[in-house]
Trans-aconitate methyltransferase (Rhodobium gokarnense), 252 residues
Amino acid sequence: MADKQTWSAESYGRDARFVSDLGADVVALLDPKPGERILDLGCGDGALTEEIAAAGAEVVAVDSSPDFVAAAKDRGLDARLMDGEALTFSGEFDAVFSNAALHWMVDAGAVLDGVSRALKPGGRFVAEFGGHGNVAAIATAMVAIARHRGADPALAHPWFFPTPAEYAELLEAKGFSVETIFAFSRPTPLPTGMKAWIALFRDPLFRQFGPEREEALDEVEALLAPALRDSSGKWHADYVRLRVAASLKPVF
């Protein structure tokens, strides 16, 4: 589909390695133990999956991107191609972990149904992803350029960015007990710049512009410069993250 996000493990590693680098605190919150069976939901290229496995856990990694799954397999991981909104596991994991992936899975109810099925009773769910207000300036600039150029502005903001209250309510409705949930601002340096970020993460939007793609990228970058580029020329993304730890309530 023309409007579907696709991934290249090579370009992701070059322009977005900070995503997994910033996931260390989430792995610490997971606190994987030797012998535990853990599902990494939206594993990307498997960089954090490796860290969980290094703690002695038995990890299964899933992602909807064939290129990411191949990259994770190249690390020697048990990586499988699977839609996060249609997980097929049943009662086999001590924990489900996810970093920087759940905001791409807009049917959050279906995701949590699959997570709850995958967990053993009392199993834990630890995740971090985009929260309400994440990349607000970036999305607004992309919407503005899409409208200005007569393109589809919906492709500028395809994500699910809930508030802590919204997500906590959904977790409770799906049978989870929420232990911690909070949102925090994390301005994030972009080592390869803003243009590389928007070209990577919103390629479907800019494909609409055909031969004028580069012009549209430049226009978005120019709109964002006053807010997200500092006096030395370095770029930061206006990230807001939501971090959660919950456990599946036992069914009596």
